[in-house]
Specification:
Elements (H helix, E strand, L loop, with lengths): L2 E6 L7 H7 L2 E3 L5 H9 L5 E6 L5 E8 L4 E2 L9 E16 H6 L7 H4 L5 E3 L2 H12 L4
Parallel strand pairs: 1-3
Antiparallel strand pairs: 1-7, 2-6, 3-4, 4-6, 5-6
């Protein structure tokens, strides 16, 4: 299993509340070449942190990847792929970007280095660290 971080802006686009309400969605709308490269590596059975950008700037939940990537059915261009996700669980508490940036373990993490990237891998050690951060009280 691999781990991913998927960014979305709930105020203008889509949030974890929407995913819970719908039960499943197509993760689409990605145009950045590096993010698309990551999307092609996603596999059914992987897990993804749902990160709310905009005002919130925090990882808020975990979703299951429930399909392998496939060509975006709304575009006539095989470069663009999508995959399906389903809600798994909310984090005990959101983990903010400020907290992530304050932890030296995340210095090379794409969320810190390439803040506009919408889909990125999360190394297993960082996934565990983020999960532990979500379980403890915010400072």
């Amino acid at each position: 299993m691999a781990y991913w971080l998927l960014k979305t802006e709930p105020a203008h686009d889509y949030g974890y509340d929407d995913l819970e309400r719908e039960g499943r969605t197509v993760w689409d709308g990605v145009k950045n070449n590096l993010a698309l490269k990551h999307m092609r590596q996603v596999r059914k059975g992987d897990q993804a942190l749902i990160y709310h950008s905009g005002k919130e700037k925090a990882a808020v939940a975990v979703a299951d990847v429930v399909s392998d990537p496939y060509p975006d059915p709304n575009l006539d261009d095989d470069r663009f792929v999508v995959f399906d996700i389903a809600p798994l669980r909310r984090l005990h508490r959101p983990v903010t970007l400020k907290e992530v940036k304050a932890d030296p373990a995340f210095a090379d993490f794409a969320l810190v280095r390439m803040s506009r990237l919408s889909v990125m891998p999360v190394p297993a050690a960082l996934w565990k660290r983020l999960s532990k951060m979500a379980e403890r009280s915010a400072d």
